[in-house]
User: What shape does this take?
Amino acid sequence: LHPSPTCGILHITSSERISDVQVMDLTGRTVMARTMNDERLALNVEELPAGRYFVRLRSAGSVGVRSFVRE
Assistant: This one.
């Protein structure tokens, strides 16, 4: 997950195929969601207000959560 902080495009790379991605604000509200089937993703986060967000990545057998800062 890079770059963080970001003001535009957030790049996500995984060793496994990602099936879906959710971006959540600090209250846990989903502000963006994508369904996919790839190891790489570029998310445009320009329209999100500045702040800290969490990204939940789901793959075949696991779920991971990372954070990033939107400037």
Observations:
- The chain has no helices and four strands.
